[in-house]
Amino acid sequence: MGRLDGKIALVTGGASGLGKADCEAFVAEGATVFVSDINGEGAQAVAAGLGDRAIAVAHDVAREEDWLRVYADIDARFGRLDILVNNAGIVVVADPEETTLDQYERVMRVMSTSVFLGCKHGIPLLAKASAGSIINMSSIASHLGYAPFFAYSAAKGAVRSMSKSIAVHCQDKGYPIRCNTVHPSSIETPMIQSAEGRAGQEKAIADGVLPAGATGSPRDVASLLVFLASDESRFLTGGEYIVDNGLSIRAG
Q1: Contacts within 8 Å (CB) and 24+ apart, 48-52
Q2: Within a domain: 1
Q3: 9 pLDDT above the threshold of 90
Q4: Which residues form the catalytic set?
Q5: CA 191, CA 38: separation in Å to the nearest integer?
Q6: Which of 122, 163, 183, 185 would you call most buried, defined as having the most Cβ atoms within 10 angstroms of its Cβ?
Q7: Residue 248 falls within a domain, yes or no?
Q8: How distant, in Å, are the alpha carbons of 81, 133, 166, 183 from that of 235?
């Protein structure tokens, strides 16, 4: 038996990087996964590789009408949602003085407003499940200072804060829904490759315990998400889980 047998999941940004790894891990553990991405063809390719329990969804997370359409489809097919992973993201490399208003607002809409929309409209569907789990992807950037990734850090900080309020709201309302955040450091994804000026150039990640300063693998995050999505983590809500190989505890 899989740890997520019979569960219905929605993963945004599922066509690549962390989202793709999450989809793969969820399906491997028995879930049916909606692979959501603004890149519809990419979502189709991931879903095709995962088999009958993966459903591709072309989905712009910055558009409220897209959320309503996606949730209506899930409700019509399954009548509930067990797992919501708000993972979609973009990055703009610019410090506070260089960042334009348009850049800032775009990053916030894709990575902060989208989480609000996903949770706002998803809570009623998650409340139909016996045990709903919301996992909002934040970043170690919400804990540390990263001037070159100013808008990204601001958006991830907003996700960190709003998720705690969502967790309390669901408890106060008596909904069977937990909400937690995950905070990775550098993980080998297309986003990191672009930010480091090596778009399309993937580097190998060694097995075993990694040294300080190493880049992690998407599976290092996906393994934690399987736990947070499963009923094994029923007593965890409002938490923030750092996946950074010790980066945040080092003095310099």
Answers
A1: 50/23, 50/24, 51/27
A2: no
A3: yes
A4: 152
A5: 15
A6: 163
A7: no
A8: 19, 11, 16, 19
